[in-house]
Amino acid sequence: MADKIIEKLEIICHDLEGLKQIAEKIISFAGTEKIWLLEGEMGAGKTTMVKAICDAFEVRDNVHSPTFSLVNEYSNEKEELFYHFDFYRIKDETEAMDIGCEEYFYSGNFCFIEWSSKIPSLIPEQYLWINIEAQENNSRKIHLVRYE
Length: 148
Known about the structure:
It contains four helices and seven strands. It is α/β, with parallel strands linked by helices. It has a single domain (about 5-145), classed as P-loop containing nucleotide triphosphate hydrolases (Rossmann fold, 3-Layer(aba) Sandwich), CATH 3.40.50.300. Helix 1 (about 20-30) crosses helix 2. It is globular.
């Protein structure tokens, strides 16, 4: 994983109604970056955020957690491909390699990776890190960092 920070941003999401605007801010902040790592406690809203981001990209498929399949593939009207990973249940990086994760990561398509901390040595050098923190009032603090 990279260690050079290019840019940082912190966003507060007060409720689910604000997710569309948050997703658009994240997309804008990401620029051309297509590897997005989503971290946060269980129930923080990682999959919900991926759904909002996919909505903003006009993905036509049903977006849901790939907890058991490890990866889901989605597409939009522009025929862009989006890969959604959830590595929560893997025991080691070998399981991620067995599904060919590196081919996905270097495909040039968007990759939304939940629980990327389980596969640190497999993450490409450039990526967008998204950390979601649940707050006491049911809002979310979202930390965005672009790494190179």
